[in-house]
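User: Show me an example of a complex going from sequences to structure tokens.

Assistant: Sure. Here are the input components:
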Amino acid sequence: MTIHENRQVRLTARPRGIPQGEHFSLVTEPIAAPGKGEILIANRYLSVDPAQRGWANEEGNYSAPVPLDTPMRALAVGEIIASNVPDYRPGEHVYGWFGWQRYCLTTPDAVLRRVVPSSLPLSANLSVLGMNGITAYLAFHGLGDPKPGEHVLVSTAAGSVGSFVGQLAKIAGCRAVGLTGSSNKAAHAKARYGYAEMINYREAPDLGAAIRAACPDGNDIFFDNTGGSIADVAIRTMRLRGRVIQCGTAANASWTPVPTGPRPEREILTRRLRWSGFIIFDHLAEFETAAARLAELTLAGRIVHDEEILPGLEHAPGAIARLYRGENQGKLIIAVD
Amino acid sequence: MTIHENRQVRLTARPRGIPQGEHFSLVTEPIAAPGKGEILIANRYLSVDPAQRGWANEEGNYSAPVPLDTPMRALAVGEIIASNVPDYRPGEHVYGWFGWQRYCLTTPDAVLRRVVPSSLPLSANLSVLGMNGITAYLAFHGLGDPKPGEHVLVSTAAGSVGSFVGQLAKIAGCRAVGLTGSSNKAAHAKARYGYAEMINYREAPDLGAAIRAACPDGNDIFFDNTGGSIADVAIRTMRLRGRVIQCGTAANASWTPVPTGPRPEREILTRRLRWSGFIIFDHLAEFETAAARLAELTLAGRIVHDEEILPGLEHAPGAIARLYRGENQGKLIIAVD
């Protein structure tokens, strides 16, 4: 078979905090043909995710840090172009841990889900049918237990997960209010993502008052991607037996030393809250079902998704910092050239 | 019928923090015969509970504060001595909201549970078959979801609820470790309440190290009555998918202003915790079933309970402060003379 030139975006310096372009290097080298039990995947689209900050750092996260001088850990969607595994056939598309690189030589362990052919674009497998949509779906329904008429508050509501939570909340018959950090995003989220109200937390002189005004009846579900001062206010708006879904903690750039905040235990007790942590990797067995349901909702026009696709691997090194600056419009994706 | 002289312990001054003897007055006055729909109860035993601090204060608790110059809100067990309600017969014993007084003229709304006659002493209805035992049972099983072989940590383990949690954990096949504030109580709890290890948190130079040493495998369930610095350490010992049961927040004497502590949201996320608040008053419908099961376990000798009974209403005013000083040996009860 053809010898392919692989291009990789490797992590070559250990960041403290948000990874910047300087922590990565572009490396070109030939890639071998698949050995026994291996498949060769040509990546088409690479994912850029907030969680990559944690994977690049050495902060005792829930995933081991990416070793230096290896391709940055990333989700991707690609096409199998050579295979030594009978069940994985060239021409088939797959979604999984294929890294920031043009080609990925790997074993089927790295595959999270086969791509079900549909009229949706391939990149949708990284957004609405990928970790973001599936996280929103499984966390909101699995831990939120939404009921029609309930009130839902979402932090990073215009983000890659929050944009689906608002829509899923609306589909479930709930009223959703979202938080975001810019007026443009607030307007966009209100127009497209099912939110009854959006709050720009950067422009609210009193965040607590802004949240209470937008949620006059309190909240039954708080879907939280930030933690920090937004969460401090939000849990104090919860109704009795409210559910808090901790899906991320983006508000704090560092957890060493542990930052302090107002103690929540009295709120948990008196409001009878249920505060749960959600990490998508616990739910691999539910991926197929969730993706099928999300595809159905998307094809029916009941869920929309926005993507910002950067053309070419050379955009990957700066992409995580771009995400944390909040500059992207929709799910940030790298197209492999 | 006879006119009875009632003796009441009234709340006559609003405390800030822990109620002391000076906040109460003993008042004697005749009590009327039951009117339409009313029953007259002769209290036999009165309960002393940590929650009474909250009921006496004006701190925006989950219960309205006790109005000044009325009998202190309290659970009690007593005998119906006159009744204008067909279904409630004189001679029957009942458990409920009868207050710190010798007689209680009330309606059946105040009754939480009828006392099922058994060979257990009547005072057991305020401890193992009362709010304490029922709280331990329903919170531990309902929110803790214990499985054999799991590890359980309990704060205020020698207290009126914790003493049952250790025993229920052992019956469920779990290993339980408890925290308490004196060496005597630690020894007593280890000998009687099912704990594999007890920690005296007042004598531990490094509480985190002491908890980690006693719980080398981490904890699946943290049954918390304190919050505060014990909880800060405890949630950092939780195993993946651990359950934290917030049943009280005794570590902080005041919540205005809200005290600060290390932020928990990253722990909730990375350990996939489920942190729930438990308030027994949400579970009135489950009382009969829980009390029946606890009576069965007690009669079979599988659960023990300790009571400290103070003789006479005049001991009530100082009893809450006594409880918070940790001087009682077992559930603190006032016998009505």
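The lines above are the inputs; the final block is the predicted structure for all two components together. Chain B touches chain A at residues 61-62, 224, 227-228, 231, 241, 246-249, 252, 255, 258-266, 268-279, 282 (CB under 8 Å).
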